[in-house]
Specification:
The structure holds 2 protein chains of 2 kinds. Chain A is mainly β. Chain A is built from no helices and 12 strands. Chain B is mainly beta. Classes of the chains: A mainly beta, B mainly beta.
Chain lengths: ~120, ~120
């Protein structure tokens, strides 16, 4: 069975602090995809990143970085120098690579960045 | 391009009533998905359309839920009769390719419809 666990329900940090959001997944597929989405207060889910199981390179995009480690089945997300605008709920998701079209989401982590 | 549009943004109904949610996907996106998030829990898959055909409806909770996508454009999700446990945020998403495809195009989500059943 596929499963995504986001153990951190809510995190509060002060602006300019770094913060890491954890994501642990379970799957038996050898090919799979991992995603992060951001849900700001306005409600929409905004796509942040997609990573396939064959690409373990870490990725950096501005203040955002992602650490994918197959050995620990984790796909963690770090925000460097957090800003108030980063306050949102962040979801990690998994989809299978062989005919499984569903996304399996975690329960989300609410990030509050305080000024 | 216009994003995924959902209507209404918020609906409050009484138990036993009927509600219809609408989703307009991004133009040209054959794949349309419905998801639901119950308060504080994960976002759960409901079903997947490819054009007007239901590709996978394994996530539909029960036969009180009916999804349609006539003509392969917009989709509706009807809940009849609504129960208290149906409360949550219903998301619609679309993609050009199926998410299991090689390209694994990401889903583009709408703002969701917050349904409250009292």
């Amino acid at each position: 069975a596929q499963k995504v666990t986001q153990a951190q329900t809510e995190i509060s940090v002060v602006e300019k602090e770094d913060v890491t959001l954890d994501c642990v997944y379970e799957t038996r597929d050898t090919t799979y995809y991992l995603f992060w989405y951001k849900q700001p207060p306005s409600g929409e889910l905004v796509f942040l990143i997609r990573r396939n199981s064959f690409d373990e390179q870490n990725e950096i995009s501005g203040r955002y970085s992602w650490n994918f480690q197959k050995s620990t089945s984790s796909f963690n997300f770090t925000i460097t120098a957090s800003q108030v605008v980063d306050s949102a709920v962040y979801f990690c998701a998994l989809s299978g690579g062989s005919g499984t079209y569903k996304y399996i989401f975690g329960t989300g982590t609410r990030l509050k960045v305080l000024a | 391009e216009a994003g995924v549009t959902q209507f209404p943004s918020h609906s409050v109904i009484e138990k036993g009533q009927t509600v219809t949610l609408r989703c307009d996907p991004i133009s040209g996106h054959d794949n349309l998905y419905w998801y639901r998030r119950v308060m504080g829990k994960e976002i759960k898959f409901l079903l997947h359309f490819v054009k007007e055909s239901k590709q996978d409806e394994s996530g539909m909770p029960n036969n009180r839920f009916l999804a349609e996508r006539t003509g392969g454009t917009y989709s509706t999700l009807k809940v009849q009769p609504a129960e208290l446990e149906d409360s949550g945020v219903y998301f619609c998403a679309s993609s050009q390719y199926p998410t299991g495809d090689f390209y694994n195009s990401p889903l583009h989500f709408g703002n969701g419809t917050r349904l409250t059943v009292t």
